Amino acid sequence: MYGTNHSVVSEFVFLGLSNSWSIQLLLFFFSSVFYVASLLGNFLIVFSVAYDPNLHSPMYFLLANLSFLDLGGCSVAAPKMIFDFFRKHKTISFGGCITQIFFIHAIGGTEMVLLIAMAFDRYVAICKPLHYLTIMNPRMCFLLLNAAWILGFIHSIAQLAFVVDLPFCGPNVLDSFYCDLPQLIKLACTETNKLEFMVTANSGLISVSSFFILIISYIFILVTVRKHSSGGLSKAVSTLSAHVTVVVLFFGPLIFFYIWPFPSSHLDKFLAIFDAVLTPFLNPLIYTFRNKEMKAAMKKFFRQLVIYRKMS
User: Fold this and answer.
1) Maximum Cα interatomic distance, the chain, rounded to a whole number of Å
2) Nearest 5°: phi and psi at 173?
3) How would you class 305 by CB atoms within 10 Å of its CB: exposed for 0-12, middle for 13-18, buried for 19 or more?
4) Angle at 56 between CA 241 and CA 131, to 5 degrees
5) If 0-12 CB within 10 Å is exposed, 13-18 middle and 19+ buried, where does residue 308 land?
6) Residue partners of 157: CB distance under 8 A and separation at least 6
7) pLDDT for 266-310, tens place per residue?
8) Under a CB-based contact definition with an 8 Å cutoff, are residues 225 and 232 in contact?
9) 255 touches 204 (CB < 8 A)
10) pTM as predicted
11) Residue 241: how many CB atoms within 10 A of its CB?
12) Could you tell me the strand order of the sheet in which 173-174 lies?
C-alpha cells in the first residue's frame, strides 16, 4: 500500500480553534495584530542589518537570517488561519497540506541549526574574543548558513518521504488550524503505529537534542567566563539571556508536540497559535530590547524612510 498513493481524499477539513463567533473574533484580532507585528519587526531587523554598516558583523548576519526564517515561519500557517476565521467550511487541498508540512519542517529544522550556529558565535565572541573575527569570518558565516538550510530541507524531505504516498480514503477532518504530520498520519487508511512512532521520535529527538546542546553550550560559556573573569559574568549573562529566552520559546512548544505523552487538543492548539504568531513576534523584540546598536540602526533606518517619503 506504500508503493502507490491510493488517496481518494482531495482536501482536508480543519475544525479550527473555536465554534464560538465571539471567541473567533477575539482570536482574529489577536492573530492579525501579532502577525502584522511579526512581519514588521522581522522585516525591520533584516533591512536594518542590511542597511547599516555598523551591523555588518557575524552576530547580526545570523540574527538577520533568523528574522528572515521567522518571516517564513509566521507566514506558513497564520495567513490561512486568519482567513479561515471568516469561513464556516475550513478546508485545505491535499497538495496544500503537504506543502504546508514541508515548509513547517524545513523552516523549523533550519532555525534549529541556525540557533546552534548563533550559540557557537556567542561562544567564540565571549570565550575567544581575540580570535573572533578570524574564526567567524564571512566564509564561516556562509558555511553555517548553508549547513542550516541544507539540514533543514533534508529533515523535511525525510519526514515527508514516508507520508506522501500513504493512502487517504477518509475521514478527512483535522482537529487543528494547520497541517502537521502527527494529525495527518492518523487519517491514513492503513496501519500507521510504527510510522507515527518513527515520525514523532525523529522530530522529538531532534528537538530535544538541539535544545540540550544549546542549553549545555550556554552553561559551558558561563562556566568558562566565571573561571577567567568574575567581572565579565554579569555581562555574559545579560548577553545570553536573550538567546536562552528565544531558545525556550522556540523549543518549548515543539518538545510538547512530539514528546508529551498525554495529548490535549486545547493545549496543542494554544501552543500552536503561540508558535505560529507569538514566537516570531517575540524574537525581534527580545533581541533588540537590550541591544543599543540595533535600536540605533532602526532609528536611523526610520529617519531615512521619513526623509525619502518627504522627498518623493
Assistant:
1) 66
2) -105, 125
3) exposed
4) 70
5) exposed
6) 102
7) 677 778 888 888 888 888 888 776 677 887 887 777 777 777 676
8) yes
9) yes
10) 0.87
11) 13
12) 90-93, 11-14, 173-174
